[in-house]
Specification:
It contains five helices and no strands. It has 132 residues and is mostly helical. The protein has one domain. Pfam families: Sdh_cyt.
């Protein structure tokens, strides 16, 4: 028979058994967003006020496309995990499950919509460049 003290059985495990992983995930995504968001604001600022064809050409270049994709993916994953934590802290029962599903759904719909639009702009940008 193996004897485990309460401390030994709980060591490294939070109440949900994922607290450390969630904390590190949120920390890493937050730090990456600190660098990505100013780059994205700069890219978006250069696109404001331009005609549609110029905006499509701007986002078909590698740096603006990669920065936009990273902001969408990292930002929405950060949102989904943060919303899940908040929902778990303040709700219970079926409300908790439905709210987590809704938050994840919103995050993934936004993420895939941005990636689809970005892919379409990259494709159209290559067509515009080829027609020149």
């Amino acid at each position: 028979m193996r004897y485990l003290t309460p401390r030994k059985s709980a060591e490294g495990l939070g109440a949900a058994r994922t607290g450390t992983h969630d904390h590190w995930f949120m920390t890493v995504t937050a730090v990456s967003l600190v660098f990505l968001v100013p780059c994205f604001v700069f890219v978006l600022g250069t696109a404001i006020g331009r005609p549609q064809a110029e905006v499509v050409l701007l986002f078909s270049r590698p740096f603006p496309a990669i920065v936009t994709a990273l902001v969408a993916v990292v930002g929405m994953l950060h949102f989904a995990r943060g919303a899940k934590t908040m929902i778990e802290d303040y709700t219970g029962g079926i409300t908790r499950e439905l709210a987590v599903i809704a938050a994840n759904g919103v995050a993934y719909v936004i993420m895939f919509t941005v990636l689809y639009a970005l892919g379409k702009m990259v494709f159209l940008g290559t067509l515009i460049e080829a027609m020149k």
